What we know:
By secondary structure, this protein is of the alpha/beta class. The protein folds into three domains: 1-145, no CATH class; 152-252, NAD(P)-binding Rossmann-like Domain (Rossmann fold, 3-Layer(aba) Sandwich); 281-591, Rossmann fold (3-Layer(aba) Sandwich), CATH 3.40.50. A nine-stranded mixed beta sheet has the order 9-8-7-10-11-12-17-22-21, sandwiched between helices. Strands 3-4-2-1-5-6 form a six-stranded mixed beta sheet, sandwiched between helices. A three-stranded parallel beta sheet has the order 14-20-19. Strand 1, helix 8 (161-170) and strand 2 (176-182) form a beta-alpha-beta unit. Helix 18 (464-473) crosses helix 20. The model is unreliable at 254-269 and 631-639 (pLDDT under 50).
Amino acid sequence: MYIIRRGLYAFQSGLSRKNKQFVLFMIDALLPPVILVLAIAVTYNGFSLFDRLPRVFYMLPALSLTGGAVSAWLGIPRVQLKSFETTAMLRTALYSALVTAVAAVLSRFVVPGFGVAGITIYGLMLFLAAVSVRLGMLHLLLWVLRNGQPKHRVLIYGAGTTGVQLVAALRSHDRIVPVAFIDDNEALHSMTVAGLRVLPPSDLKDLVEQRDIDRIILAMPSVSAPKLARLTRQLRQMGLQVQSLPSFAQLVGEEELIDNLSPVAPGQFLGRDQVGDMLAEGEQAYRGKAILVSGAGGSIGSELCRQLIPCGPACVVLYEVSEVALYTIERELQELAAGTGVEIVPVLGSVTDSRLTRMVINDHHIEVVFHAAAYKHVPLVELNPLAGLANNVLGTRTLAEAANDAGVGRFILISSDKAVRPTNVMGASKRLAELVVQDMAKRSRGTVFSMVRFGNVLGSSGSVIPLFKEQIAKGGPVTLTHEDVTRYFMTISEASRLVLLAGSFSDVETSRGGDVFVLDMGKPVRIRDVAVQLINTAGYSVRDEAHPEGDIEIVVTGLRPGEKLHEELLIGAGLLTTPHSKILRAREDSLSELEMAKALRALRSAIAVGDHDGARRVIKTWVHGYRAPVQETIRAIHP
Length: 639
């Protein structure tokens, strides 16, 4: 059998397209006379008619010529076998009808006794033969083509219209074998649809093992994306390849292909009015100035750069450690600054590199520094405390000293509400960075140092909105650390305006600097409310005990090491006003010059020898209000 199949495979592979069309043409030409002989035998119960009326043989070549001509006219030989069922069945019926009509006319003169019954039998037999021969050739061809080739045995999940259409399309494929349908509808179970059995999902595991299934196709375009995503994860855990198919109506444009996860405006989750365009009053502070933005490729740094361009600075130096981020923001700003006269200078490097920071500040005569470079992801910094402290604390010290020594006019540190009575290394590192800036402000040679502290920035890298949207796209669950956790929120544009305004206020308010500027952010927002709103905005519903048919589940995972239930913005009490009603100023305690020197010396020593415990002791000693995570948790992270 193998030799026969290999021989047939070699034969069909050697035929050109024209050769194959000629074979099909000859079949259409030979079928009419052959079927006539068979129809006469059926009508007259044998072949005796040929003895009594030998002129019947004259009909055979005439019908052969007619069959060939009609077939060529209808283009049937040009239809590929695998497309015959869908594109040529009607043509075959017309072919049979025309040839039968010619046979009817000829039989009146040649076989007067053949009659209507004989012609009817002939027409039906001709149509069935024409269809059967091609279908038989198709199955023979598929049998030959599948010889020695890997076959994908697939299950179709969904026995609806899309699934049935998919099976019809796959049947003619030489390497894909549809095995069965899987469907949740109990009414369809054990039925046969499009020639395949419909089985319940409970039979899936056994069917995969018994029938050697390696792929499953989801043909359920009407099912919501979260449910499809959950089903996909379950099937992939069984070792199956999973593919999802839209409806055929969607593919041809009759129905819209909808992405329910449409863009969401972060500002809609604030629970307050956004701070409007307040930069105009501080714009003059940056006009014609040379400005350096560290962390220029990050969420805040990049938005700072975008908002600086309309202020008309002479030069914006993009200081960034990530090559990809620097490349991306530099290309964007070059287009944004085209025709404005603003020079864009990309610098690839770390703020911990003292030589590079001093060289860049001096070479470009920097007058304003916005220090946004920091490691800010709480769990990552908790796992990597030395890297976080080195970058956030020592990097700030390096850049601040370089700015002070070069006589930079203003230095603005971007800080975080997690610096207030921190419970994690990231927050503690930001508080130490604030202490560094406060120390520099007290002994500055002319540089005005200040800090901007704000809450979570919606839409920034690592914020809840991108995380929740990603989880919703995967079908959930949306993870929440605590039901009652709250955070202060602001948009990226608000945060950037605050930073720019804080820089412009420094000269106005005090020549000593050291101020902490905060935004009046209203009431803190409950994170669960944000998750529910995002799910509803995406067009889905929350799935819980009260609504088991919902789309997305919210799962509480517990507070992470060092994570607070509620964040704060101020360490001490009391706020002072600024020229803008929504921006407030705080004067907070700082370390003495001697204490700061001891803290930095101890921190450098711990980092140099890789002493995690020593670094944590520095935090505990010098960061007021620091509450370390449970000791067991720390040991689990760094045994």
